[in-house]
Amino acid sequence: MPELPEVETLVQQLKRRLVGKKIVEVKIVNSKVVDNKIKKIVPVKVIGVRRRAKSIIIELEKGQFLLVHLRMSGHFHYIPKGKTIEADYQRFIVAEFKLSDGSILTHNSIRMFGSMKLVSKKHLDLALERLGPEPLSREFSLSQFKEMISRKKKANVKTVLLDQQFIAGIGNIYAQEALYHAGIDPRRKLGELSTLEVEKLYKEMRRVLVLAIKKKGTTIESYLHIEGVGGFQKHLAVYHCQKCPRGHRLKNLKLGGRSTYYCSKCQK
Ligand SMILES: [Zn+2]
């Protein structure tokens, strides 16, 4: 499932291709994934594209928004003016958006789990209101992180990193990577972490996310960004790996129902 770095990559790419253009035509192939109401509002201009947690928010004129959740396998293809949609891109199309400059954006979904909904500002705020802080935002300080951790002493560190109400955008890949680099065993309770470990976790979590955005995300299974595959899979330390970067054989266990890789020698 796309996490913060994958969604942020898509947001930056969509922003460059959509903002300032009008959506002039919409073809909806699967109305279970893509809201049929979108058809009624075209032509409509795209004002902005942004991210909150793992959601893409496409801001349209007149206070309307497209709220996009990619879930397992949602992705986009962009076809510049004059080019036809390649056969590869036609597979799994759930919607096609024709833009005012003659280009086309397709929304594809292999497993059809995602959603693209047309919402008002009020509904958008409601959908996002319970999310935790953005780990890469300027306002998210070490002291805020320490304070959040002190309120959840009995919670398991890895499970809490996946909790979108605790912190937004981190999923199974980046929680495991951050914990490895911080040297923390994923089974630990928050209340057991030393000040130094909390500081390391704060620093490593942000470092891993920033590097993953730079590499345009992690492609292990089906994730694609608009320009191709991600590159962070080459930098993974533990997720889906056999050995850690120091050559130790990794262990795998289920925590909160999610598969978790860790190194019993590097993580204490
Ligand atoms: Zn190790």
What does this structure look like?
With 268 residues, the chain is an alpha+beta fold. It has two domains: 4-128, Alpha-Beta Barrel (N-terminal domain of MutM-like DNA repair proteins); 142-262, Orthogonal Bundle (Helicase, Ruva Protein, domain 3), CATH 1.10.8. The protein has helices at residues 4-18, 38-41, 87-90, 121-128, 142-150, 157-162, 172-182, 195-214, and strands spanning 22-28, 44-52, 55-60, 64-69, 74-79, 93-99, 104-109, 115-120, 251-255, 258-262. The strands form two sheets. It has an eight-stranded antiparallel β-sheet. It has a two-stranded antiparallel sheet with strand order 9-10. Strand 2 and strand 3 (55-60) form a beta hairpin. The structure holds zinc ion (ZN). Zinc ion is lined by residues 244, 246, 248, 263, 265-266.
Features:
single chain, 268 residues, N-terminal domain of MutM-like DNA repair proteins, 10 strands, 24% strand, binds zinc ion
| Assembly state (oligomeric) | single chain
Helix proportion range: 25-40%
Quote the CATH topology of the largest domain. N-terminal domain of MutM-like DNA repair proteins
Strand-and-helix sequence, N→C? HEHEEEEHEEEHHHHHEE
Strand order in the sheet with the most strands: 5-7-6-1-2-3-4-8
User: What share of residues are in beta strands?
Assistant: 15-25%
By helix and strand content, what is the structural category? alpha+beta
- The low-confidence parts are none
Level-1 CATH class name of the largest domain: Alpha Beta
The biggest beta sheet reads: 8 strands, antiparallel
Distance N to C terminus: 28 Å
**Average pLDDT level:** 96
Per DSSP E runs of 2 or more residues, the count of β-strands stands at 10
Annotated CATH architecture of the largest domain: Alpha-Beta Barrel
Number of helices: 8
C-alpha Rg (nearest Å) = 20 Å
Integer tally of domains: 2
Bound molecules: zinc ion
CATH superfamily of the largest domain: MutM-like, N-terminal
Q: What sort of overall outline do the alpha carbons produce when their principal axes are compared?
A: globular
